[in-house]
Amino acid sequence: MRTFVHGAAVWGVACPRRPSRVAGVTMAGFRVHALDTLRMVPHPAVTLLLDFGSGSPVLDSAAGPQRGSMVAGPGLGSGGAVRARGENVECVQVRLSPVIARAVLGASPAELDGAVVPLGDLWGREASRIREQLGDVSSWQDRFALTDALLARRHEAGPPVDPEVAWAWHRIVSSRGLARVDGLAAEVGWSRKRLWSRFRSQLGLPPKRAVKLVRFDHAAHRLVAGEGAAHVAADAGYADQSHLHRDVMEFTGATPATMAGEPFLAVDDIAWPGRGTPAKPI
């Protein structure tokens, strides 16, 4: 377990030694004794938080506080209005590609409607069982193995998305948000209306929003790594630096300079090392 310190918060961060058996699943473990108002930065994945500590993580949003194990759709935190807090937090955080989220969750990401949903609402008693199992073992690698086995079982039993929808998502991710939205429908042989409808209903966001979110995520981590805003804007497909500034403000409620110092993004690069390498198709 690695340690990350930001202000008064000391994070313990654990990473699996092996990749998940399910393509589109990544995970990390966190231990934080005192977490105070951490700004959540949007990410192009469905987030699954499996809580098992003596305390509970809390997400504060316009809908009110949500405690414990929870699920959030892609882009959670847009506008900078979602904050995380808690004491004695221990959890496994899973990132699910939207392509596999419906099978794993038993519900389409579209049903989350941008909100944070208690895991028990989707998994019933299985949410309580996995909490107990994670708390009963002392090794992070054992916790990752338990989580992976559960996700693999649910994924195998769940319904897949349309191959055309999966392909369109893969195209957006592999291009780092530079894919032409208008060309996606033609490339899969569907009408624009059909692709937009299926994409949104199965993945939880429309293609144009997906492109914007993937591009922002790539740019955000380059800013955190210390690259200049002008260079990032030009290289990441923004019209100019002002365009990048507007997108960062839209997604985080902060300027690029402020966002580059956000602890959420700094600890993110520890928890998911290698995320800056070329995107792997999912």
UniProtKB/TrEMBL annotation:
Keywords, comma-separated and alphabetical: DNA-binding, Transcription, Transcription regulation
Keyword Transcription regulation: yes
Keyword Membrane: no
PROSITE patterns membership: HTH_ARAC_FAMILY_2, PROKAR_LIPOPROTEIN
Pfam families, sorted: HTH_18
GO molecular function per UniProt: DNA-binding transcription factor activity; sequence-specific DNA binding
InterPro entries: AraC_XylS_family_regulators, HTH_AraC
Start and end residues of each HTH araC/xylS-type domain: 162-262
PANTHER family, per the entry: BLL1074 PROTEIN, HTH-TYPE TRANSCRIPTIONAL ACTIVATOR RHAS-RELATED
Name assigned to this protein: AraC family transcriptional regulator
